[in-house]
Amino acid sequence: MAETMTPKVNLGAGKVLADALFPQEAAPNSVCKIDVEKEAAYETALKKEISNKWKRTLTAWLLLAPSLVFLCVFTIYPIVKSVISSFYLDNLSVMQPVFAGLSNYIALFQDKVYWECFWNNLLIAVVTVPISIGLAVAMAMFANSLKWGKAVARLGFTYPTFIPLVAAANIWMFIYTPIYGLLGYINPNWRFLADGKTAIWAVMVMLIWKQAGYIMLFYVAGLHGISRELFEAAKIDGANGLQIFTRVTWPMLKPTTIYVLIITLTNAYKMVDHLYIMTKGGPGNATNVLLFYIYQTGFDYWDTGKASAMTVILVAVLLIVTSICFFVQDKKAYYNN
Amino acid sequence: MDITYSAAKAPMRRRTHHPVPVGKILVYGIMFLLLAVSLIPLIWVVRTAFIPKELTLDLTAIAWPTLENFRRVLAAAPFGKYYGNTIFIVVGVLAIQFILITLAGYAFARIDFYGSKALFVLFLSQLMIAPEVLILPNYSMMAKWGLTDTKIGIMLPFFASAMGTLIVRQTIKIIPYELEEAAKMDGANLFQILWRVYVPLLKPAYISFGMISASFQWNNFLWPLVMTDSVEKRPLSLGLAMFAMSYETGMQWSDVSAATVLVCAPLLILFFVFQRQFMESFMHSGIK
User: Fold this and answer.
1) Which of A285, A307, B82, B171 is a good FRET partner for A140, with 20 to 30 A between their CA atoms?
2) Superfamily classification of domain A105-333
3) What pTM was computed for the model?
């Protein structure tokens, strides 16, 4: 694949993700940096090392083994297991799981609630991901630009990260409750959470509040990584603030953005704890999402077969959605040196 | 660049600095407003937690802070027990994670070996499909092993961390290889190199990942919810939810607020106190 286009600089996690899908030759970075004197010595050492590759492979696999065991047992195997049990009828009506072919999937496609959850999830992803990322970039740049009070700004934006989602749900209940809630002081008739049309939007406001600060952390780190000379150069060339952002800052933040996209996209499907407190997926199923419906199906109705089929589809959705991030990204963005 | 170009630009640039920068004021105004909006929930819950119960619904009321609400909460639910469980889970998971991500991160950063790419993709898959998505198969596995309603059962799926491995890998790549060479010359073996050379230099990675991972475990809810049956095994997040669910009416807000503050306070205080170190670590570890 596109091996020649990859840079020799360490660009952060986003770049690493890209590397995994667009592999390059893994040469020790430091080799090219040392002076000529050592180079000859290195070359012989390197040759010796290549002959030792099997030995190194053993070492590496041993180092990776503990993580690998847990990864296989709690990520890979459960996926396989879900695929298998999704083909079985396994609920309270049968004593033993019975092979049922695709019937669980067919039942899902006919299940209106499932489709409601599916579209709700899509809406949450489409709305919260770009808004969270946009806000996070703005917040990071704003906090960086402050001459004093930098810490206050960072704390003020970031603290929701460290609050449990269930606690956040409690707090936002106090805000949304009609009449007595904080918004009730503005207009006692607002019932955002009770109205099927507005409930999901009210939930999304909270989700954005919760995760934008987290994303901001990554952008603060990303901004820190851009060399100052680039901004200076752009200023000398007479670029205005907007031009500096679109031509320098945003392209340089691209590796961060890829990583952050994966976090926010998976978050859109993972954040469900608040539903337990706020709406239980209601009113009707207006705020219900896939993972919460899996929980309800699996642990309230004990329909393991159907819940497994939903898990399989959710895993597939997550894989497709995150893979898109890799392939859509523009490899030419990595010109930082 | 020719000189006439920059000379012509120079006075223009100076002129743009003089008038009132409306756009800038507008942007900063919006950002300060956002900051205020972001802070309102915190102020609101802290106020409700500390104000006497009778005054909860009176927005303009001012009173000396009281600990009465907290006293009632602690009497009504075993939050001390919940605290113990959560701290046990957080510390246990972090300890194992630190060891595993150091070993794995080093292997991916420094060793060129057969199967490295395939294994790396396998690790990345955990970033996309987190254990919490797989609650159902993981639960049935735990049930088969008799690990439901145990703390170890809650902790197990999180011992391996793709994110932590990535952060360690990135941070190690920034560390000069010469340091490892020097240690090798001195006859250090692999574990001595890891312990003496890398572990001290990985501090920013440990701090930033530790904070993220600790807050994840502290806040984790759905997995402990399906895993625990008994009150004694519940972590804080679950205890808080159960406590809040037992009050359906708005009249108990002061209690629920106090409980919420109780649950959030340790991490928030930790973050507020070590904000600078945390931010610095975040910038200097491989996360970008």
Assistant:
1) B171
2) MetI-like (1.10.3720.10)
3) 0.82
